[in-house]
Amino acid sequence: MRVYRADNGIYYEVNSVGPDSTVDQLRDQLYKFSSIPINEQILLCDGLKMDGGALLKTYNLPMGDRNVFIYDRRLLQSETPPEVVLPNIEVRATPSPSLPFQQKANTHPVIWQLIEFENEFLGHQNIAEATKKALDARIEICNNLLEEQKVMLKGLKIAMIPLDENWSQVSQAYDVFQSIYKPQSEQQEILLSSFEDNMRKLGETRIHNGLTSSGVNTLLDVVPELKLRKWAEECGNQYSQLKARVSDLEKQYRGTRDAIESEKK
C-alpha cells in the first residue's frame, strides 16, 4: 500500500502489511522508511484518524483506493517549515579538442582558419549541450517538486476534514456554554451588586412588636449577618475568578477561530 508523507510530498510503498495487520504494525514499518518516531506519527485515511489497535481492513486497506497520509507531529507544532536543500547542478562542458599547432606552418591559412572555426564551434556546441543537460535536470527537479507540492496540498485538504468536524463540535459546545453562562452571569451580577442594598432594607424592616426582644428589632437582627457578608465576599471572589477564566476562554476561542479561518484561505 502507498502512504504519502504530508510534509514533503514523497510516498512510501509498504508491502509488508495486510488486511489483518494493525495500524500499529503499519506505524512500525513507516518508522523504518521515514524515521518519524511512532509516537509522533499521525495517520489519516481520507480524513479519518487511524486508531493504533484497529485492523487495516477497518479502513478498507491495503487494497482499497484510499488516501493515506502520515504527518509528523513535531513539524505540526513548529512554526518554521523544514528546510528544503536542492541539489547543486553544475554546467560541465567537455573542452574542445586541442589545435594541432605543430601543423600550422604546413597548412594553408584558409584551411587553418577553418580548423580554428571548427574547433571554436565544437567548444560552443559542448557548452550548449552541457547547459541543456543542466537545464533539463533543473526542469526535472521542478516537476518533481511540483508533484510533491500537489501531494502536500492534498494532505493539507485531508487534514482539514477532521479539523472542520472537530471545530464544528467545539463551536457548538461553546455556543451552548455561552447560552447558559450569560443569563446566569447576569443574575449573579445583579445578586452581588444588590447585596448591600438588600442588607440595608433588612435593617430598615422592623419586625412585629410581639416578636421583638432584646437586640432583635429588624429582620437584619434575625439573620446571620457576618456569615452572609462572608458568603457574599467569597461569592464575589469566586465569580471574579470565573469571569477571568471565561474571558481567557473567549480569547482562546477567537484566536483558534481566526487561525482556522486563516488556514482555509
Structural class: alpha+beta
Q: How many distinct beta strands?
A: 5
Q: Which term fits the overall shape?
A: elongated
Helix content: 55-70%
Major β-sheet profile: 5 strands, mixed
Q: What is the terminal-to-terminal distance?
A: 32 Å
Radius of gyration: 39 Å
Low-confidence runs (pLDDT<50, min 5 residues)?
none
Mean pLDDT figure: 89
What fraction of residues sit in β-strands? 5-15%
Topology pattern, helix = H, strand = E: EEHEEEHHHH
Oligomer: single chain
Q: Give me the number of helical elements.
A: 5
Give the spatial strand order of the biggest sheet: 2-1-5-3-4
Whole-number total of structural domains: 3
In short:
The chain contains 5 helices and 5 strands. By secondary structure, it is of the alpha+beta class. It folds into 3 domains: 2-76, Phosphatidylinositol 3-kinase Catalytic Subunit, Chain A, domain 1 (Ubiquitin-like (UB roll)), CATH 3.10.20.90; 101-160; 164-264.
Structure write-up:
The structure is a single chain. With 265 residues, this protein is α+β, with helices and mostly antiparallel strands. The chain folds into three domains: 2-76, Ubiquitin-like (UB roll) (Roll); 101-160; 164-264. It has five helices and five strands, in the order ββαβββαααα. The chain has helices at residues 23-34, 73-76, 109-193, 195-204, 225-264, and strands at residues 2-5, 11-13, 41-45, 48-49, 68-72. Strands 2-1-5-3-4 form a five-stranded mixed sheet, with helices on both faces. A hairpin with a 5-residue loop joins strand 1 (2-5) and strand 2 (11-13). It is elongated.
